[in-house]
Design brief:
By secondary structure, this protein is an alpha+beta fold. It has 2 domains: 4-75, Alpha-Beta Plaits; 81-181, BMC (bacterial microcompartment) domain (Alpha-Beta Plaits), CATH 3.30.70. The protein contains 6 helices and 8 strands, in the order βαββαβαβαββαβα. The two termini are 29 Å apart. 45% of the residues are buried. Pfam families: BMC.
Amino acid sequence: MKNAIGMLEIENVTQGILVADTMLKSGNVELLLAQPLCPGKYVILVSGDVGAVQSAVRSGQVIGKDHVVNDFVLPNVHPTVFPALTGCTEVKQIRALGVIETYSVASAVVAADQAVKAAAVELIEIRLARGLGGKAVVSLTGDVGAVTAAIKAGSHIIADSGFLVDQIVIPAPHKGLQTSIF
C-alpha cells in the first residue's frame, strides 16, 4: 500500500543510479521514478509503508553521501500527489491559481503535499525539473482563500531550507493563461 513516499535528489547520474539500486535492495519499496533531470541531476522516488521507505532513503543517503542535493520521507502522503507528479490530474477548471517554484525537486513535492493538506485545493501539476534548469514548480487551484492558505503552507514548510524560489496567487487568471496550464 502506498502510504509513504521518499525521494533522493542526487547531483549526478552515475551516483543516482547507484543510489537507486541501493534503495531498491534495502527494503520492500516500489520504484515510482528513477531518471535524470536537468541539469544533470538524478531523482529517485519510491513508495511503500513508512518503515520501508525510511529504510530505503537512509540507505540511499549513506551511499550517496556528498552527492545528495535534497531528500525527504513523507508519511501519509496526500493521495492527489501521485497523479500530480505524473501530470495526470483531472482539473476541470482553474479558479484562483497558486504556484510555488523551488530550487529542488524534493522540496517541490514536500511543498505540494503540505499545500494540499492545508486547504481544499486541487493540485494541477508537480513539474519536476524538466525544462526548468533543475528547479521544480507546483501549481494548484481552488477558491482564492483556499489557494492563498495552501500556497502559504507549502511555501512555509520549505522556506527555511533555502529551496524556495518564489510563490504567487492569481485570484482570477485570464482564460488565455488557463489553456496553457492544462
